[in-house]
Amino acid sequence: MPLVIAIDGPAASGKGTLARRIAQTLDLPHLDTGLLYRAVGARCLKDGVLEDEAASLAAARMLDLATLDADSLRDAETGAAASIVAARPAVRAALLDLQRAFAARPGGAVLDGRDIGTVICPDAPVKLFITAAPEIRALRRYKELLGRGADVTLDGVLADIRERDARDSGRASAPLAKAGDAVEIDTSDLGIEEAFAAAMEIVRLKSGGR
Fold first, then answer.
1. What is the 3 state secondary structure string of 61-114?
2. Which comes out higher in pLDDT, residue 163 or 2?
3. 3-206: which CATH topology?
4. Domain boundaries, the chain
5. Which are the contacts of 184, defined by CB distance < 8 A and separation ≥ 6?
6. Are residues 50 and 41 in contact, defined by beta-carbon separation less than 8 angstroms?
7. H or E element: which one contains 54?
8. Per-residue pLDDT tens for 67-118?
9. Whole-angstrom distance, CA of residue 34 vs CA of residue 160
10. How far apart are CA 127 and CA 107, in angstroms?
C-alpha cells in the first residue's frame, strides 16, 4: 500500500516545514496544497476578480502544478485571498482530483493543507494535525514576512491569523478539522528538530516501520 502522509493544521503552525522534512527524509514527493489556493487567489487578485466566484473557478480549472512558484505566492495578501477562494465549494471540487492524483503516485506522497486527512486522503495510513497557539503562529509568520521585506506589524499579522482561522474552520465546504484518527502535535513549545522527531516517530508507528 502506498505510504500517504496527510498533514493538516492552521496557518503558520509549522506543518509545511514538517511536511517538507518528512518528504525529503522518506524520499517521497510533497505537495503543499495551500499553494494551489494561493495560486488561484493570486490570479484573481491580479485580474481584479477576487469577489467573482466564476472567475475563481476558471482559475482553478486552468491550474498547472508544473507552473507553481512557491516564492511568489508567500505574501500575506495572497494568503488572505487563498483563504477566500478556498471557501468556495466549486473551487475545492475543481482541485480535488488534482490533489488525489498526486497522492496516488506509486510509493506514496506527503500532502499538507487543511482537509487532507478529512477529505482529500481520508484513507491515508498516516495523519498528522499540526497546531500551535495563535500568538506563536503570528510571531512565526511575522518574522517570515519581515525576512521577505514585507511591511507588516505583529498585531496585524495576528489579526490576519485569527481571521483566517475563523474562515477556514467555519466554511461550509471542507472546513479545517482534525480527522478522528489523526495524531495532534502542538508545536507551540517545540523547536523544529523536536517537532520533526515527534512527527517521524508517529510516521514510523503508523506506517509499521516503513
1. HCCCHHHCCHHHHCCHHHHHHHHHHHCCHHHHHHHHHHHHHHHCCCCEEEEEEC
2. 163
3. Rossmann fold (3.40.50)
4. 3-206
5. 128, 129, 130, 131, 178
6. yes
7. helix 53-61
8. 898 888 988 889 889 989 998 999 999 999 999 999 999 999 999 999 999 9
9. 16
10. 17
